[in-house]
Amino acid sequence: MKITKICCIGAGYVGGPTMAVIAQKCPQIQVTVVDLNEERIAAWNDENLDNIPIYEPGLDKIVGEARGRNLFFSTDVEKAIDEAQVIFISVNTPTKTFGKGKGMAADLKYIELCARQIAKIAKDDKIVVEKSTLPVRTAEAIKSILDNTGNGVQFQILSNPEFLAEGTAVQDLLNPDRILIGGDSTEEGAKAIQSLVDVYSNWVSIDKILTTNVWSSELSKLTANAFLAQRISSINAMSELCEKTGADVNEVAKAIGMDSRIGAKFLKASVGFGGSCFQKDILNLVYIAKSYGLNEVADYWEQVIIMNDHQKRRFSSKIVQTLYNTVSDKKITFLGWAFKKDTNDTRESAAIYVADDLINENAKIAVFDPKVSRKKILADLDYLESRNAENNANAILSFEDPYEACKNAHAIAVLTEWDEFAQYDWQRIYDSMQKPAFVFDGRNILNRPALEKIGFVYQGIGS
Ligand code: NAD
Ligand code: UDX
Fold first, then answer.
1. Angle subtended at Cα 57 by Cα 315 and Cα 199, rounded to the nearest 5 degrees
2. What ipTM is given for this predicted complex?
3. Which ligand is in closest contact with the Cα of 253?
4. For 55-74, how does the pLDDT look when each residue is reduced to its tens digit (9 = 90+)?
5. Where along this sequence does the record place binding of NAD(+) (predicted)?
6. Its pTM surpasses 0.95
7. Ligand found nearest the CA of 348
8. Shared-domain flag, residues 121 and 171
9. Among residues 110, 121, 34, which one has the least CA distance to residue 71?
10. Probe residue for ligand 1, chosen from 9, 21, 34, 35 as the CB with the greatest number of ligand atoms within 8 Å
11. Which of 147, 180, 212 delimits the end of a domain?
């Protein structure tokens, strides 16, 4: 089947950029991205491309090129489903906050709602594509809903997980390491797989498009995230040992990364990984393993999360200890709040947890992040429910200017690796701070010798 109309349910960090790139690369296909969130859709349609809801380098240009031509953002979910031959489901699949599997399992209520809506609306055969990250065997549940409540039309379900990382989403989408498409081995399944292969092959070479059965595809996504996060927890575990032994984790990472079997990427020790995916997906993997009675498998992967929680807490404890065991009423400046550079996303950012620990110690946290608003920072803290909103608002000072944020601070903590932080006038910052002036570099991005020469007391991760 030649695809000319695609609908994507969910205009978030995955749906928005992914569909923008498909639309840019396939001008012959009409792509409609729908969402229930009216504010988000209005922002995607904002004439001023600076106001699109997701900050990703290069995304504004792509949206500007395709929007109104063959890329549309709408809240009319039913119409888009009705018209499309292919429907991507790209809604959020957060960790359950209630009931069985609370704190571990993926909450699939949004996925089920999509399946029921597709079943209700569809009047002709459709290909339904799982773009969201889902527990292995979710396609079975989607199929059961579609087949039992539908209008007698045929559905093919494909799994096509997304591997983009935030901050580099556009580059990752334009140049993916691979595209993974899982589908049924029946003749109809093979045809559906081929239809999607034909879409991607508009810009991805065919040898990078991998086809598998549905379950392998679903599980590969959870596996990839588990392996990536495991590398970070592994190097972070070593960072603590480095601090005790005089080894330097940057040197250790370089030395092991040059072994081609290990590889150099994803070995940057840090204050701990954040983001909406790693923790959620590993917890989900742990839950799935437990549900099959595979306790050793579950415990093995859970350790990645335990190590990450430890690394975040270790960072806040180090700040308190170094500041003479009290941060009460001291101004501590956070450079960065986003979970990584080049994104405005703060979900599960280490900054949230470090701030929460320090606020428990009565510190005042001054925050500067080039892309994150005060409203977002307070919402992140309120979500933890550690204290009431008023107390959070009193504990957080936010700034539009990094030098103002650092003025009179007892310490600076680097929480996000924004490039600009290394370029600041650190002498000027030093001059405006309380002395001794402490820097806790949670990303190892600052020039330690230069800072120490100025007079800072510098502490990085793992050295
Ligand atoms: P998101 O929260 O940014 O976006 C999801 C959107 O879906 C929201 O705007 C929400 O309003 C909308 N939505 C929910 N239910 C809906 C419904 N029934 N009808 C219409 N719209 C609905 O989430 P995201 O970061 O884009 O992630 C989506 C999925 O992709 C998740 O499963 C995630 O694990 C996976 N994923 C995310 C990333 C990433 O970097 N963020 C990368 C790969 C995979
Ligand atoms: C991740 C996966 O990389 C991506 O393939 C998947 O589709 C979604 O989840 P993302 O969370 O957007 O992407 O960013 P990523 O670059 O993986 O970083 C995640 C966290 O790990 C960030 O907080 C980052 O700062 C941290 N990190 C990453 C490290 O601490 N050290 C590293 O070496 C790499």
1. 115
2. 0.98
3. 2
4. 999 999 999 999 999 999 99
5. 10-15, 35, 40, 91-95, 132-133, 166, 277-280, 347
6. yes
7. 2
8. yes
9. 34
10. 35
11. 212
